[in-house]
Every structure is written in C-alpha cells, then in structure tokens.
Amino acid sequence: MPYSHLLVAVAPTPESHALLKKAVAIARPENARLSLITLSTDPEMYNQLAAPMMESLRELMQEETQQFLQSLADAADYPIWKSQIASGELCDHVKAFCQNHQ
Hints:
Elements: E1 5-10, H1 14-30, E2 33-39, H2 54-76, E3 82-86, H3 90-101
Parallel strand pairs: 1-2, 2-3
C-alpha cells in the first residue's frame, strides 16, 4: 500500500532529525505529503505563582517550538506540507489531524 501522507510526531531532540530522515526516505519514492506535529509545553505546569508572566512565557515557548519545526523543515530536503504545534494529549491531536487532513 503506497503512502500518500505521513504525519511525524517530533520533539526538540536529536532523535527527531533521524526520525524525519526516515520519514523522508519513505515519502520520497511515493511523492507523499509529509507533515510534522509536536507538543508545546504549557508553562503553567511549572510555576503557578508567576501568573502575570505566563502569557509572555507562553509566547516565547511557542516561538521556540516554531523555530524548532522550521529548523527540521529546512534540514529535511523534502517539502513539509503542514506543521502543527499542539498542547495537551498528543493522541487527540493526531486523531484530529488525521481526520481533517486524510
């Protein structure tokens, strides 16, 4: 069965580069779409006393996560169709992504 779209769950670790390289090797022969999904950590989990700073911290963490996804996409040598940053339960986001994007 040929692949038409691969969704790769990544995290800001060196292993994600190797995982994406394997996904590209699978996608390239089929000319399949390749998408990335990652979780963004909610800063409220770490310090509930710093509520006024949470919005700035949340924006910073979102920006860092976006930069991580962009660095993966730049190194992939294959077009990334869609990148998604999720928070909460990864399985829920994977299911929704699959339903919405086939």
